[in-house]
C-alpha cells in the first residue's frame, strides 16, 4: 500500500472509533467558505477546515464536503460552481480520488438532494455561519465529544503526514535562506518578506500564518507583523518566524541572525546550544511540561553566563526571573494546523489536563509519544512590560540588559518527529541540511 492509502485507512479507522464512541454513525465534514468583511462584500482569505484536509489534500475548494458513514467508502462532494466572475480552483487528478466516491456539484442543493434522509442522521463538523448550511437539519453540530476524540488521536501522525511535513519544511527552509540573504543585503522588513514569498513562488495567503519579519528591537515583539517599508539606518539583528504549506501540512521555523560577530552573535550561539541540548532529552514517556521546565533552566544558565541576571540557573528559575525573558511556551503540536490542537487533552473522552498558572502560555501538556510532531522554540528577549515587575531588583544587571535591548531578542524553532527510544527526526534541520548539499 502507498503511504496515502495507509493514511486514509488510518483516518477512516479513527473516525470509525470516534463516531462509535460518541453515538453517531455518520459525519458530514464541511470544507467551509469565505466570510465577507463587516458591511462589505469583500471576502477574507479562505482557510479550509483542518478535518476536511485530514482526509484529502484539497485546500481551495470552498463549499465542498465529505460524507462518511462508519465502515463505508467516503463520499467527497467537490463544489465547482458555474461562475464567470471567478477562476475555478484546479483540482489535479491525484491518488486520493481512487479511495473516495467523487461527486462533483455546482450547487449545494445537489449535495443535500443526494444525501436525502442521511443528512438528518449525520453529525456536522465545520463552520455554519452561512445559508443554506445554517439551516441544514443534522443530528448534531460540532459535537465536542466527537471533535475531542478525533483531536486526541490525530496527534500521532501517519507516514504520509510526516512526508508532507518534510516537504513543507524544505519549502520554508528555502524561503528562510532567501530572507536571510536579503537581510545581509540591507533590505527592509517588507523587502525581506517579499524575498521570502518569491523564493517559493507563494502568495501571502498561501502561508500557514502571518510571517514575523523583525529587525533590531522588533525581535522582542513576539507576534510582530508590521513590516517596515524602509530599512533602518543600522540593521543589527534579524528574527524571522515563517512557514510554508505542502498538501495542507505546515512548517513553522524561526531563526535569528546577527549582522556582526560579537555579543549578540555569541548569544544566538548559546541559545542554539541550549535548544540542541534540550532536543536530546525528547523521548516517549516524559511530559512536554518537563521539557519546558528543562528549557527554562538552560535559558536561566544563559542569563547567568551572559551577566543579565545574578545567581545559579536553579535560583533564577525558582524566583521566576527566567519568565521575564522567556515568557511563552516551549512549543506546540504542528501538522494540519500550525498550532495543532489536542495539547491539553488527557484522553479521547475529552478530559483536560489542568494548566499550570506559572506557565499559562504553554500550548502542550501531554505526555510525549512516538509519532507526535511538535515544535521546540526557546526564546530570550528584552520585553520592558515584563521587566517592569523587577524594577529596582539588584539581581538584574540593567546595564547589560540595555545592551541587548537594541537587538530585540533571540528565538530558534525546529519541528521534531518523536521516535522510539529518543530516535527523533528534526524536520527543520534536516531540511536546511538537504539544501546545503545541493
Automatic annotation (TrEMBL):
Query: What keywords are annotated for this sequence in UniProt?
Result: Dipeptidase, Hydrolase, Manganese, Metal-binding, Metalloprotease, Protease
Q: Which Gene3D superfamilies match?
A: Creatinase/methionine aminopeptidase superfamily, Creatinase/prolidase N-terminal domain
Q: List the signal peptide residues.
A: none
Instruction: Name the enzyme's class.
Output: hydrolase
Which superkingdom does the taxonomy of this entry point to?
A: Bacteria
Q: Which positions does UniProt annotate for Mn(2+) 2 binding?
A: 241, 252, 413
Show the PROSITE patterns listed in the entry.
PROLINE_PEPTIDASE (PS00491)
> What residue ranges carry the coiled-coil annotation?
none
| Domain Peptidase M24: residue ranges | 163-420
State a single Pfam family of this protein: PepQ_N
Give the family per the record.
Belongs to the peptidase M24B family. Bacterial-type prolidase subfamily.
Q: What does this protein do?
A: Splits dipeptides with a prolyl residue in the C-terminal position.
The protein depicted here goes by the name: Xaa-Pro dipeptidase
- The gene for this chain is pepQ
